[in-house]
Amino acid sequence: MTDMQKLYLLVPLAPLAGSIIAGLFGKAIGRTGAHVVTILGVLIAFVASVVIYQDVQAGNVFDGPVYTWMQSGNLSFEIGFLIDPLTVMMMLVVTFVSLMVHIYTIGYMHDDPGYQRFFSYISLFTFSMLMLVMSNNFLQLFFGWEAVGLVSYLLIGFWYERPTAIYANLKAFLVNRVGDLGFLLGIGLIAAYAGSLNYAEVFAQAEHLATLQMGETGWALITAICICLFIGAMGKSAQVPLHVWLPDSMEGPTPISALIHAATMVTAGIFMVARMSPLFELSDVALSFVLVIGATTALFMGFLGIVQNDIKRVVAYSTLSQLGYMTVALGVSAYSGAVFHLMTHAFFKALLFLAAGSVIIGMHHDQDMRNMGGLWKYMPITWFTSLLGSLALIGFPFFSGFYSKDSIIEAVHAATIPGAGYALFCVTLGVFVTAFYSFRMYFMVFHGQERFGKNHHDHHGDHDDEEPSSDHHHGLAPGQKPHETPWVVTAPLVLLAIPSVLIGYFTIDSMLFGGWFGNAIHVAANHVGLSQLEANFHGPAAMALHGLQTAPFWLALAGVALAWFFYIKRPDIPAAIQRRFQAVHTVLENKYYFDRFNEIVFAGGARLLGDGLWKVGDRALIDGAAVNGTARVIGWVAQITRLVQTGHLYQYAFAMIIGVFVLLTFWFNLG
Amino acid sequence: MTGMPLLSLAIWIPILGGLLVLATGSDRNAPLARSLALAVSVVGFAVTLPLYALFDTGSSAMQFVEYAPWIPRFNVNYHLGVDGISVLFVLLNSFITVMVVIAGWQVIQDKVAQYMAAFLIMSGLMNGIFSALDGVLFYVFFEASLIPLYLIIGIWGGPNRVYAAFKFFLYTLVGSLLMLVAILYLFMEAGGSFSILQWHQVPLGMTAQSLIFWAFLIAFAVKVPMWPVHTWLPDAHVEAPTGGSVVLAAIALKLGAYGFIRFSMPIVPDAAAAFAPMMIALSLIAVVYIGFVALVQTDMKKLIAYSSIAHMGFVTLGFFMFNALGVEGALVQMISHGFVSGAMFLCVGVLYDRMHSRNIADYGGVVKTMPKFAAFFMLFAMANAGLPGTSGFVGEFMVILAAVDFNFWIAAIAATTLILGAAYTLWMYKRVVFGKVANEHVAQLEDIGAREFAVLGFLALCVLAMGVWPYPFTEVMHASVNELLRHVAVSKL
Known about the structure:
The complex is a heterodimer.
Chain A: H1 3-24, H2 26-57, E1 62-72, E2 75-83, H3 85-108, H4 115-134, H5 138-156, H6 163-194, H7 199-204, H8 206-209, E3 213-214, E4 219-220, H9 221-236, H10 245-248, H11 254-263, H12 268-275, H13 277-280, H14 284-306, H15 311-331, H16 335-362, H17 380-394, H18 400-414, H19 420-446, H20 487-513, H21 531-535, H22 540-547, H23 551-569, H24 573-580, H25 582-589, H26 594-644, H27 649-670
Helix pairs in contact in A: 1-2, 1-4, 2-3, 2-4, 3-4, 3-11, 3-16, 3-20, 4-5, 5-6, 6-9, 9-12, 9-14, 11-16, 12-16, 14-15, 14-19, 15-16, 15-18, 15-19, 16-17, 16-18, 16-20, 17-19, 17-20, 18-20, 19-23
Chain B: H1 6-23, H2 30-46, H3 49-53, E1 63-71, E2 76-82, H4 87-103, H5 112-131, H6 135-144, H7 146-156, H8 161-189, H9 196-201, H10 206-223, H11 232-239, H12 242-267, H13 269-295, H14 300-319, H15 324-355, H16 366-369, H17 371-384, H18 391-406, H19 408-414, H20 417-433, H21 440-443, H22 450-468, H23 471-475, H24 478-489
Antiparallel strand pairs in B: 1-2
Helix pairs in contact in B: 1-2, 1-5, 2-4, 2-5, 4-5, 4-12, 4-15, 5-6, 5-7, 5-12, 6-8, 7-8, 8-10, 8-11, 10-12, 10-13, 11-14, 12-13, 12-14, 12-15, 13-14, 13-20, 14-15, 14-18, 14-20, 15-17, 15-18, 15-22, 17-20, 17-22, 18-19, 18-22
């Protein structure tokens, strides 16, 4: 094993070790011990990732096994690493954001009785996510995929006494399992037809797979594979209609909303499709499917962000919408655009979530934006970093989000694949919607009238019993002022704000046009991808200046202006609109009734079916009619045969003789 | 070491040891009975370890063979041996016995010697089933193993134990009588031989094959159990003491599946192939139908019992697709199910010992008072739901991959277990472990002690080890499974 290979191993194992120590020996090492050991683990992983990044920059790509997990039939299942530019970019994002979140957690979870457990979980998450992105095969990909789902489940339900939290975590796990069903079948098709689970071996046969049909169905095999895989991505990356778990996942503590449900885990689906680009490029049907799902998510989930009053939920819907943008990019073969947006989004969305968490601490665990306002005076660092994050999110020129989002919109513009027209409409209008809900939140929280200190409790009854054993008041008492949070909270905000502003400017050239991803991403010749954009690209500064003259910029500006007008200038208007368009508002408030539908049809239906099968099938038919029925028949026969038991010896002897005779006859005939 | 009759030791040490424990008599000597039982079970497990260590993975032949005439007149022989299919079950059985002895240490205060003896004797008999190569010997072990389990349920069981014990006994006895007929028929067809290996070679017509297939099917399907002859299992589990449930789930259910692969498939390959669609359909019903039924159970043990049936559906599905990945996946699933369902029943037992209730509604917020227990229970629940990294994933994954190769839609139906398994397991977990402390009984619960920790810890290690590196488990199977499939592919007509 070379030194580099040892380093590869170190990246996932260091956080794992931290997690195990904090989890099993949390009591012995105490709170400080737990955060020191886990932060150390993640720090090691981050530093190692930087070293590996430099090695990859130098042109060294690695693809090899670590150990053979199992062999069976003609399949060999291996655990192994693929270290290429795509992987190393994900490693950097994951370890950096994770490191920030670990530090932030010291402040955020300061009074929580589950302190050690929390650190153990987030380190375990980091390990799982690294296994996922570093994999060179579908088995390990699936392992990481499910392991991050497990940790997400554990963390959403971290405050296990809250009914809403344990409802949300079960829902998240099950909805993800629906996606995983598709994902697993996709992997199964690959194993069956390619005879291997190793990426490189499968991709080498991609052209051949594209000529095959699936069984006797006559369907194109490659389309079936890609759609199955994408169903997995729809679960993990929360695309309509499997998005329903993500807003509810906000029941978890805020640091994990930033790490898992914004920056990293939910982007696993995007990463996976980008990784599978050699397969997806061969099926236009699958790409169109991806495109339409993504576009729908991007626009319609954005609408929902407009009517939310819980600060975390606004950011959650914004995440859904941005994931939709990434998915759209995948659909138009702009894989590097999707991954680029994944990266910029990881920074600014983690920033926005952590800032929201900082606001929540400042507000003494009140999440309702209607109780906020004017916070900029009291929480200057949180305020300013939030502003930077929001500008990045709405794609303001020169900010990181501008480069990634504008590239996606341009790529959709150039695309010719079916569904591109609809997608263009969605992503363009989405810009306006994004700007509106982002700055609605920004103005409601940081500017305008100070509405805190009135102790609203009626609007968020669900959150009242948060952190049961700590002595937090929920919401500010009358006369109390919000306060800026300690440095362990604000330092990560500042450190995340820097890339949120700058990283787009400095990396767009190499990531999108410089061929930095090399062979990791494949775009077929007949797909436009980002090539048209590349032709018109004259440096990041020129792109930003040009951006000032395009429709998305003015749409974003209009969104900000409208938000200002509604929530600062004339705060009475939103209520009036809500009254005027009550029906629309109700639909949005009920999130298009997805939850209600699932609750009644799937959850209710499954229980009803189970009850029916159990009571009618098992109890009435099998046990009632067949088993106990047999017993009754036997009892009835016994009643009759009892008559034969006369007690007369000669009758018994006679019966015996006949019996022996019959048996002997039978015996000789057979012999 | 190779010269030692290891299989005989694995069979007779527990049986004779069990008799010795029985001889300690009344409960005044209970401490002695317990220590002796532990010693016997540990020695019994120790002698099976060389079976794995010395196993030649390159050979598909029977290994550690022992042969001696038993009833020469009818050519009945004391013929033992294991191949890659059966060897792991001998180990699993002997291991689980140690766990069961430790688990019953404090809980059982009544007729301790008899309780321990019953488990030890049963363990020996089960080892006999897995290593018997003579039809009569197999039958004797197969039937004899019913008796200790019947007694365990009937004596140490719950309030409705007599009904459950009878249902269990009759259900399985009816099945095995038909098997006896088939065994006698095969004895004659094979020219007066009870050798199972010779039966594999006997040519048989299609009618005979079909009849034999059905005779075996009824015997084995009851044991597995397959839908629709499964209804004895939930009753038996509910009434059985914890140890009984563990052995029932971990070992006894494997006997039926083992029967399919040792008898039905190689002896009547054409009938097995002809009835494979039916077997697959029944397996899928077990996965889906039982999955839904498990969802609505209000009794924890019933829920896990139903989940066992669903998991065994994967075993029969894997067998009857006749490909190596599927068969090995099914075998892996059987072993994993031994660890996982055994552990799940132990977890319920831990709660039952404290609360004397198996009713989900009586619980809530257990994690608050029993955090260590909750962590173990979480691991086993996730294994039960087939999470990668645990043993529960490996077999299901293999069978589903094999099924996609076989027929995509069969795989799609089977894969619904991903959702159903998670739904019934985690929903139960949520209601029992999460939430606010439900009542003062839960508030007064004590977390697991050292002995419970040890048992659950051992099983947790097995579940994780097998999930992270299943290679050593599948490695021993390859030669025998490939040989079996080669054999089954050749028509006997």
